[in-house]
Design a protein that fits this description.
The structure is a homodimer of 335-residue chains. Chain A is an alpha/beta fold. Chain A has two domains: 2-174, Stage V sporulation protein AD (Peroxisomal Thiolase, Chain A, domain 1); 181-334, Stage V sporulation protein AD (Peroxisomal Thiolase, Chain A, domain 1, 3-Layer(aba) Sandwich). Helix content of chain A is 35%, strand content 24%. Chain A contains ten helices and 15 strands. In chain A, strands 1-2-10-15-14-11-12 form a seven-stranded mixed β-sheet, with helices on both faces. A six-stranded mixed β-sheet of chain A has the order 4-3-9-7-5-6, with helices on both faces. In chain A, α3 links the parallel β5 (79-84) and β6. In chain A, α2 (51-70) crosses α3. The interface between A and B is large, with 59 and 59 residues.
Chain lengths: 335, 335
Amino acid sequence: MIKLGKQTYQLEKDISVVTGLSLVGQKEGDGPLKRYFDFVEKDDKMGEKTFEKGERHMFVKAISSAIKKSGFSNEQIDLYVGGDLMNQLVSSNYTAEELEIPFLGLYNACATMTESLIIGSTFLETGGLNNVICATGSHFSTAERQYRYPLEFGNQRQSYAQWTVTGVGASVLSSVKKSKVKIRKFTVGKVTDFGICDIANMGAAMAPAAMETLNAFFKDTNTTQKDYDLIATGDLGKLGSDIFKDLMQEKGYDLETNYIDCGHMIYNIDQDTLQGGSGAGCSAVVLNSYILNKLNTGEFKNVLLISTGALMSTTVNQQGDSIPCIAHLVLLEVE
Amino acid sequence: MIKLGKQTYQLEKDISVVTGLSLVGQKEGDGPLKRYFDFVEKDDKMGEKTFEKGERHMFVKAISSAIKKSGFSNEQIDLYVGGDLMNQLVSSNYTAEELEIPFLGLYNACATMTESLIIGSTFLETGGLNNVICATGSHFSTAERQYRYPLEFGNQRQSYAQWTVTGVGASVLSSVKKSKVKIRKFTVGKVTDFGICDIANMGAAMAPAAMETLNAFFKDTNTTQKDYDLIATGDLGKLGSDIFKDLMQEKGYDLETNYIDCGHMIYNIDQDTLQGGSGAGCSAVVLNSYILNKLNTGEFKNVLLISTGALMSTTVNQQGDSIPCIAHLVLLEVE
């Protein structure tokens, strides 16, 4: 691995994204990306008694299916890296138990998908492993009641709020099996806090972290937005991505032509999600459906994915603290 | 990196533990290991208004001091990997913001210290980085009120309960600066659940995970307990380590002569901690004080550290779920 500048690394081994798999809830399945998803689940409890058990069920189904789709058995997957939004990563823990694959639990909120790709590809880069599964997800009903209000309370949503994506995305990375799409570079983000204390206003909180990471990547690699077919942020939503574009403009980068936000694009405007999607599942399912599809069909030759995480805690938020945020970037390229 | 057997990896690069630093509270400072700790803090709020802010203050002090002790500046540390027991890893997030070092957040409960050493040394193994800081910690008062009861409730503690260690341990790993102590091998654990539902009985819940990981390591490396000067588990406590020894005995390994549990050894019997210490800080501070000291003085030539994590969540515990557990192993050797 070669360090470029201050925060960016270039992989020397050929690391393929062999498989991407996406499982979503009905609301996401009704959105503009519906034809790209592998599974759309009508029942967001998956036949279980609680939303938490339903979320876990989604994880097990998505990750087992991803491994099957890649043509590997569970035994051939050396490592499972990932996490979720639940406290203590319960959905991932129970999934790792079910799969019986050695597990490293990660948490960087909604930036966990790119975090898992960074750690997974670094393990493969050492040459000691063949195949790694990277996966994250989230669930509207479990996240809402853990981070904000009881669902039964039926609170009015702020105009700047986002909607947690119900879905799980999983990518199988391999250094032995080849595919068209490769992970080439990544940038590890720094925690950035711009003083936003409102836990509904995550887009504004995360936009500066996304800007810091993309700016660091451009500086470290001596490239600009013009060198990439697509630049995608994780879940800034409409408001957050407008702020992000303004911040990038101030740095001299014009993102008007080749920029999307996974959160902004996952729902239709009439789906009443206000600023759009959020959650660890957001960039995970868009990467493992739309983005990988467009890379595999050759429509995009290279994509920068910047998952963005609002590392907020209800406990310290109630003690008056603002929301620290982080963003990790991964460069995906077609061979 | 070379894969040995099913779950174990051997590092090919020379990865030194340049510095270990331990910061603990007064109770830990009154225990048998007091002369090994770098800092003993009288005020477990560190002059702050809340325990959570106090914990964060401990993290910043311990990690900054570890970097200083290693002779590096913050800019020379390429990566910070670690976590804590607070939901969303708040203590680590705020510390990463303060230090301005690229950050990857990890969560495997009390197994996070060895998880961070595994990920830190894997990044160094690629040759792309020079120095990584690995750190975890915990705080009795923040963990108790997050995982169990409000402190003011003053509940009676179960006879099989443990006491969360207040403390932070930090290790600086380097592939450029040399020290006597090296990380040579590691085993990534699998999630193991033996059906314990009582959130006070963590030793019994974690013992099978520790057994699975140590057993996998012995099989993968074709060694036994006789090949190591010390085998240390993270925080099984007295009861948990008795169960662990029994389970290892059943597998044919007799741990009577060279085995300790960090949780069992950190408090004196008259300190009223019942089965002993627990928490992400437990194996972190014992590693970065007593164990590194004995390796550096040559008393131990090689040590197996198996941090053990009870991945319990109050939400799903209340829904009737048992506690999934994990244990990760690291082999430390003197050159």
